[in-house]
Amino acid sequence: MMTTHRADTAPPQPERAEIISRTFQFLADGGEMGALMRAHDWTQSPLGPPERWPDALKMTVSICLNSRFPMVIWWGPDFVMLYNDAYRPILGMTKHPASLGRPGRAIWPETWSIIGPQLESIWHGEATWSHDVLLPLDRNNYLEEAYFTYSYSPIKHADGRVGGVFTAVTETTERVLGERRLRILRELAAQTAETRTVADAGRRALDVLGADNPDIPIALLYLLDEERGTIKAAGACRVPADKHAAEVGLDDDDDPWAVARVIRTGEPALVDYLPFRFGSLAGPVWPEPVKRALVLPVPRLGTGGTTCGAVVIGINPRRAFDDDYRGFLDLIVGHIASAISNARASEEERRRTDELAQLEARFRDLADSAPVMIWVSDPSGLCTWFNRPWLTFTGRGLEESLGEDWLAAVHPDDRARCASVYRSAFEQREPFRLEFRLRRHDGEWCQVDDTGVPHYAADGAFMGFIGSCVDVSDARRWEAALRKGREDLIRLNETLETRVAERTEDLAAANRQLLAQIEEREQVESTLRQMQRLDAVGQLTSGVAHDFNNLLTVILGNASYLERLWAEADDPKLMRRITHIRIAAERGAKLIAQLLAFSRRQRLEPRAVDLNDTIARMRELLATTMGGGIEIETVPSPEPWSALVDPTQLELVVLNLAINARDAMQVGGRLTVRTANVTRGDPMRPEQPAAGEYVELAVADTGTGMPDEVLAKAFEPFFTTKTVGKGSGLGLSQVLGFAKQSGGGVSIETEPDHGTTVRVFFPRAPLVDETEQAAGQEMPVGRPASACVLVVDDDDDVRHVTAAMLEGLGHRVVEAGSGGAALERLAARDDIDLALIDFAMPGMSGLDLAREARVRRPALPILFITGYADSTVLAGVRHEHILRKPFLDAELDRRIRAVLANKRAGTVDALMSIQR
Description:
This protein is an alpha+beta fold. The chain has six domains: 158 residues, PAS domain (Beta-Lactamase, 2-Layer Sandwich), CATH 3.30.450; 170 residues, GAF domain (Beta-Lactamase), CATH 3.30.450; 101 residues, PAS domain (Beta-Lactamase); 35 residues; 161 residues, Heat Shock Protein 90 (2-Layer Sandwich), CATH 3.30.565.10; 121 residues, Response regulator (Rossmann fold). It contains 25 helices and 29 strands. The chain has a six-stranded antiparallel β-sheet, sandwiched between helices. A five-stranded antiparallel β-sheet has the order 2-1-7-6-3. It has a five-stranded mixed β-sheet with strand order 19-21-22-24-23. Strand 8 and strand 9 form a beta hairpin. The protein is elongated. The chain starts with 13 loop residues before the first helix and ends in a 12-residue tail after the last helix.
């Protein structure tokens, strides 16, 4: 915000300036809250006017306002609240600015049972300190779980009496919630680490989730049964059995908990209106029922996106469901998925071990029951006899098995090996064992295990061998299957370790992403808090602008009247005082216009402006803003064109760019402001102006410059490289918006470590012929014909002053204090030539009245008078139909003459483009 001073403006009287200084010195600075305290109507507060506040309170308020730590003062037996900017976010969106100057019990009824007794105890003069105290706050339109660390200290008068309580407070909600959620995740990992079955993993997970956790008031776990194609409930936490199905079909779309859809699609689902669907489902901590639940898919690890179940988790009714909350629930699901995956691997390992034992048992049974052949061989290797099982097994007769004829039943590829083994055994008289393929009685080849041991007679003579031949075909097949099972189990264990390592890395990446999101969210929240403070200043400014302009209209009108009345009086002292009143009112009108421009509530009113003159008038303000360590250089254009621009917004652009340059230069450096006439070609970038003639305003610094990645985002709203609290990220975006709205554009030239130049282009004002300009400025000679003017304003003082001005200009006046009264005057009188209507009136607004009047009197000229109206509404009204408060006789006379001249010429402009 900027203030420009006229050279002939007299300073305030010394005695008045001294009174103002003494009254508000302790309220100086203090940011937004300092401004609010200075503008506050303290007559409605128990504290009374600030100049009457005790010295102890003034000193404490001064400390509070100029501190960046959240502080609040509770003064007097009613504990009236005073606080600083840093405390403002604690009040949320519903308690500010209504808390200022109000008793604490009225502002914090939901927590007064906790903090009230603590505050009362301080009257005994003893300080207290509380750490991470739970205070349920209704500050965002719901009862919110919040934690704070704060101290209460007595504020004493000079005589030792306690006058109030001083509080330094820090909100620790995010830290308390973060530690609580981290404990839950650690406990979940510890309890599910050693589970060996899926059912046990689900049961232990629900035990952890259901342990009086406010962030998980209710929970359900459903797992997919792939063999049956159904979904079974694995457990519930604080959800009665009649509120959820024990089994759900995979294709079921009527499931009220939406688990089937979540498992099919793999996408989360939010279930609303739980009390309406299931009745009251209360959590373990808060009395409020759970209203919403999030259903999250449980991924099957290592399968590329498939799901094995779904988790239903109720949402804490006393916390907003933000990104941190959602990230916490995602980590819970990740732990459950890992626990289920590990349990499935353990079950698979036990299953394969059981199959191996069954194979071994089967092999033993098979060996015991197989057909057996017992025979005795002489040294020639000829078989002497066989038992019946052998003959039955081979299907050969006794004659066919004598001698070496039995080798005919051996597979041709194995016969030579068998004969060699037998001959070697007889020669060495050593036991033998070999396997070969033998033809069974059904003609199929089977695998047999043949063994033989030397046999001696009683006298020690070698008799031959006694052997047995057993069919081991099935046993060998079982052994192969067993061997393959063991190999698969080894590979499974190796793969399991890899999958666990991959999942661990996935969880670590998720944690890192969550931390990055938290950091980004904190930065965005800080920026939004800054924007909320700026918007609060804008709302406060625009809200009181109308009333201030009404007051200034009355002051200026009466001051001008007194000046004319006493113009010839021989009393210079009285005339000087009247002139001071008028000049102060004009300065107040200028200040209100600048405040509205700063808050962006004032619509643009472009006119021909000399940029050289603007820069020259702002040099002193720039020097104050930049500080003594920065050199300021201005380079005006030798023959500047006039720029078509709103002068107030132009000053804000210069100040905005200068502040950006100051922050880029840190300490020292040079700021250069240039003006030039330029002719631009076709634009190369969207922020640059279209081809044409422009007046250029260039602001250059010797600061750090911008790298390419910063330059690419320079015009994005909220983008800033400054630390939190140093900038909102809206400066360049607002400059671009104003330049484009004015019909121009912006360009940036920058180099890292070599400074930045921002060039703003405003359209050249149209050239006006000197004779036409003189004719346009010439006022009609003599007094115009008397007209009958209807003056409509709900403020009696403003209406009377306006009527007096009109009567002094020779017009007849009809007054009305509301829209309804104005319509009655129009219906009763046909001689009304012009309607002068206040834009912002209660009930029927000036715009509504204008519409109704034009319906009844289509040719009636209408001129709006306004102290303030929303720029979006005024955007539909032509400039020549608006007379801004406060105004003097000359401006009123000029507007009335122009409107009456149009009427005499038969011209009635379209009043507005706004639809009903």
